[in-house]
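Loading example: each entry is read as two labelled lines plus one structure line.
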Amino acid sequence: MSNVFKNITKSLVETVYKYFGNSSGNMLLLTSIIGVALSSIAQTGAVLLNKNYSTSQKAFMAPQELAEGCMTIFSMLLITRPIQGLAKKYVSSGKILTTDMKKYLEKHSLLEKRGNADFNLPQSVNNIVEKIKISDEFVKASENKRNKLLFEHTEVLNSYDRTLDATSAIATTAGGILSTAIVSPLIKNLVASKYQSVTMDTISKYNNGCIANSTGLKI
Amino acid sequence: MRTESSHHNYAFKASFYDRFFKSLPNKDIVNAEKFNKIGHALASPHWNRLALGCAAICSQPMWDYFNPKVDNDTAKASAIRTGSKIVVCTSVGFTIRGLAHKIVKKFANGSPEEGSTLLTPKEILSETNVAVRNSKLKLHRNAFSTLLALSVMMFTNFLIDAPLTTLVANKILKKSNMNNKSEGNKNV
């Protein structure tokens, strides 16, 4: 039993690592979307079951909750994701550089390419590494010497990974704030008030119809 | 001919994008350690939830209260409900995500000497560079604890968040209505 649990847990761990291990931004976005959808369903149910609200208030707040859920998901996909993509491009093109990354680019005469859309920093580092690996010096070197030859390149790639992840997380949060605190509440209120007026019109028409029918009048 | 035209269009768009992208400002990070620390904190699920919750409480109730499309009573009830929901959901979300992160941290260590490796992937365990391993481990812990928290919140959304939001919102609404009535009586 314990082994079965361990195996299931291990395979779950490997799957999560495979898909999200190198990109916390994607994980945050996906779980935020699922969380928002579930929360929206729960809160809509809570509004409909709340006896303290009038029909008119429910007619506004229930669609408000649903609209908030939908708008938050849409704005996350339409705002947060592009911001996340732009942030990644910012780092990979070298627009955002740490001091050690800048020194590295300067040393390898790559600094002038910084910020170009077609410049890819990790790719350029890998190209340099590939050239080193086929050089005579590297081929003839001992394991220690090889590690020394590759050290600065590995370091800059590690620094790049850390910067990319930090930038991605900051951008995802900023995009999340923009979509959940500004865009989504504004649109959800517009949608909900429209729905409220339509619902209240239907209810009043229905009530008038009932009164008219009970008094024998045709409407 | 058609292919050539679409090729020109593509080339034009690409060069426009290139020029636009190049015109965006460059940014040098002087204190990389501090920058990475902020990034790591925001990537951890509970601090991320708190950041979003704080931003939401500053703006969302205000949008609801000053909504010109609905009557005053509905606007007030909606603002109170939104504020209560943000406070309740942020508190519950922060606590659950924080606990999930603690649990994952306990069971996802870099090596068996450091503690349990039940939640550590093979690739991280076989990584020899300690700095790279720690960095990867941090990311994995965040991702896995987010997933764990989400699976718990599938239930707490319905069992805690929604009923607690209703309870808090009703209490505040009642108090606010009573205050309004007493103020009305004073005016009379």
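The longest strand of chain B covers residues 27-29.
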